[in-house]
Specification:
- The complex is a heterodimer.
- Chain A has helices at residues 12-23, 57-62, 73-79, 118-128, 143-146, 161-165, 185-190, 192-208, and strands at residues 4-9, 39-42, 47-52, 68-72, 84-88, 94-100, 112-115, 133-136, 152-157, 169-177, 179-183.
- Chain A is an alpha/beta fold.
- Chain A folds into two domains: 4-92 and 178-208, 3-Layer(aba) Sandwich (D-Maltodextrin-Binding Protein, domain 2), CATH 3.40.190.10; 94-176, Periplasmic binding protein-like II (D-Maltodextrin-Binding Protein, domain 2).
- Chain A starts with a strand and ends with a helix.
- Chain B folds into three domains: 9-157 and 285-330, BirA Bifunctional Protein, domain 2; 162-263 and 272-278, no CATH class; 333-390, Rossmann fold (3-Layer(aba) Sandwich).
- Chain B has helices at residues 18-37, 51-57, 83-97, 136-153, 165-174, 179-190, 194-203, 208-222, 239-255, 298-303, 317-323, 343-355, 371-375; strands spanning 41-42, 48-50, 67-69, 75-78, 101-110, 122-131, 158-164, 262-264, 278-284, 292-296, 310-316, 333-338, 359-364, 380-385, 388-390.
- Chain B has an eight-stranded mixed sheet.
- The chains are: A alpha/beta, B alpha/beta.
- The interface between A and B is medium-sized, with 21 and 24 residues.
């Protein structure tokens, strides 16, 4: 049996997905310390987990250093990596939306949008036929309208709590997001048997949930 | 943009240092012998072509083309692929002399990279084109040649996945209501976005039966069901497409030493819009990206006003290098260092060794700044000086 390498995003999604694997009947070590380790072995299943930043998972998978990965649809939309998207895991569900201060219009002359997702934001406004200036930020996006940096933000919304606490309202929903199982195109062919079994078992486990 | 530094090359351009150069030469000469034995003739085409003809006919996205303007004001492109220039030559000249035509190339092509500028924008491709044959024998010859060539080069673990553009289009058209839906679904298959495909089925408001058929088609393909099972997705007139693929499978089973190298997957779709019949991708363990692809592209010749069958494949040499063990033979390299007054003697010694096809470098010792470091590049060092020849 070939060894499988799986790139996982650190943090909450890792725990959820890992539990999902265990529920699907994979024989994985029950206790793992994911605080500092970057590589975790599951010798009984001949699986190796790589723990990565969520944004980096598609990079590992595209280059084939990981056969499989778990990545948010937001990251996949943003980066356009050459990977196969095989399965919607239906975990960490949320969506991307535009938001801003209540009852405001976009500036007519120089509309500005702050976001962590410049590609998604650009495509969204392009499709709407509006030319906007995109300002890329790495976090605390909600600040931007509050301090007058931008008219709108494009960001992930899961409960809407963060928006509310910062006095922002949601304007348009752009796209639904959940975690996806992605596969490297070469692994998909060369380790076809193994990956098919893995996906089938995981799918089976998901249906029982 | 920051100031360009002296060491920088344009985005995506790479140097081939001696070691890589030799590896490429090994691939080239091995492939050349193999391909010529198969009856193919090598040709070379210009690096620069007209945008109006080759640039537009090529299936490479316009944003990936390197464009320039000549002194007549015509827009030119650096050739983005070899298939289109070969189609140009075949249609305008060579097919009139020989039909069917078997051509081969080993050439560099240029594609500007959008993402991560370090990826190669110029790379060598190695490929075959069989022009003037509509039959499954032609398809089989090409797939088989690709498999054998990789083996001859020493690629150990690879798979060839074969699909059929005609069958995929037929199944999509049978189960959708218009061309827009067909292209939306096909695009998702090109991206291998199966999750998106499922979502799109819901979004397009297809009937339960249509959705069921398409879902089953994808599942059967993923599970690699026998070809026979796909008959149910096709109308009576379309069965002939599957006949063609079945013939191809039979021919390949006869020819190939290891039929397991081949698998069929009808969800395989290519961004190359001119593929009309069977198409395939080659994946090898060791590279994260496909190392080659090919297929039947009769459609391309319509652009050149020719009605001929054509099929071929191309392999990316840069990705081949990633998966190939270093096959270059380490040859002995001798250094002869001489001192003032011993030039003639050392020259004679060098020529004598070179005549036995040994690699010999002759060097005036006093010119070398650091002898110890320089000597490390050679297997044997001979010093020709006062005391005679010292090894």
């Amino acid at each position: 049996m070939n060894e499988l390498t799986i790139a996982m995003p650190k943090g909450r999604i890792f725990e959820e997905a890992y539990q999902m694997f265990i529920d699907a009947g994979f024989d994985l070590p029950s206790e793992i310390d994911d605080s500092r380790k970057l590589i975790v072995e599951a010798p009984n299943e001949r699986i190796q987990f790589i723990l990565a930043k969520p944004m980096d998972v598609p990079v590992y998978v595209e280059h084939g250093v990981a056969d499989i990965g778990i990545a948010g649809k937001d990251v996949l939309l943003e980066q356009h990596r050459d990977v196969h998207e095989l399965l919607d895991l239906h975990i960490s569900n949320c969506y991307i939306a535009t938001a801003g201060l209540p009852n405001t219009q976009m500036d007519d002359i120089a509309p500005r949008v702050a976001t962590k997702y410049p590609t998604i934001a650009t495509n969204f406004y392009k499709e709407k036929g509006e030319q906007v200036e995109i300002i890329e930020l790495n976090g605390s996006i909600e600040l931007a309208p509050m301090i007058g940096l931008a008219d709108r933000i494009v960001d992930i919304v899961s409960t809407g709590q963060t928006l509310k606490e910062n006095g922002l309202v949601e304007y348009e929903k752009i796209v639904d997001i959940s975690s996806r199982l992605i596969v490297n195109p070469v692994s998909y062919r060369v380790k076809n048997e193994r990956i098919r079994q893995f996906v089938a078992q995981l799918k089976n486990g998901m249906n029982k949930r | 943009m920051s100031k360009i530094q002296m060491f920088e090359k344009p985005l995506g351009m790479r140097d081939s240092f001696p070691k890589v150069f030799e590896q490429k030469e090994y691939i080239r000469s091995t492939a050349r012998d193999f391909i010529r034995n198969k009856g193919y003739d090598f040709i070379k085409t210009p690096s620069v072509e007209y945008f109006e003809t080759i640039g537009k006919a090529s299936a490479i996205d316009e944003s990936s083309l390197f464009k320039l303007v000549d002194n007549q004001g015509e827009m030119l492109v650096l050739r983005p692929d070899m298939t289109t220039p070969i189609a140009r030559i075949a249609a305008s000249k060579l097919l009139k002399e020989k039909n069917p035509l078997r051509l081969a190339y080993f050439a560099n092509v240029f594609r500007a990279q959008q993402q991560e500028g370090g990826r190669p924008a110029e790379f060598e491709q190695l490929g075959l084109e069989l022009i003037g044959d509509f039959s499954a024998y032609g398809d089989s010859e090409i797939v088989n040649a690709a498999a054998e060539l990789l083996k001859a080069l020493g690629v150990e673990s690879f798979r060839i996945t074969i699909g059929h553009a005609g069958i995929l289009t037929a199944i999509l058209e049978n189960n959708t209501n218009n061309q827009e839906q067909v292209s939306a679904l096909r695009q998702l298959l090109v991206e291998k976005n199966f999750v998106g495909f499922e979502e799109m089925l819901e979004e397009l408001q297809l009937t339960e039966e249509q959705k069921g058929q398409l879902t089953r088609m994808v599942e059967s393909s993923i599970e690699a069901s026998p070809l026979q099972n796909f008959r149910t997705f096709l109308t009576d007139e379309q069965q002939v497409l599957l006949d063609h693929v079945e013939t191809l499978q039979k021919l390949l089973n006869v020819q190939l030493s290891d039929p397991l190298l081949i698998s069929f997957d009808f969800t395989l779709a290519s961004h190359m819009s001119y593929y009309t019949g069977m198409l395939f991708e080659i994946h090898a363990a060791g590279s994260g990206f496909p190392i080659g692809s090919g297929g039947r592209y009769d459609e391309l010749f319509r652009l050149f006003d020719e009605e001929v069958g054509a099929t071929g494949f191309g392999i990316r040499v840069d990705r081949l290098l990633e998966v190939l063990p270093d096959k270059t033979v380490k040859e002995k390299h001798t250094l002869i260092l001489f001192e003032e007054g011993f030039y003639q003697k050392s020259n004679e010694l060098a020529e004598e060794r070179r005549s036995k096809s040994e690699r010999v470098t002759l060097q005036y010792a006093a010119s070398v700044l650091d002898l110890d470091v320089f000597k490390q590049n050679f297997d044997e060092v001979i010093m020709v000086s006062e005391g005679g020849s010292l090894t």
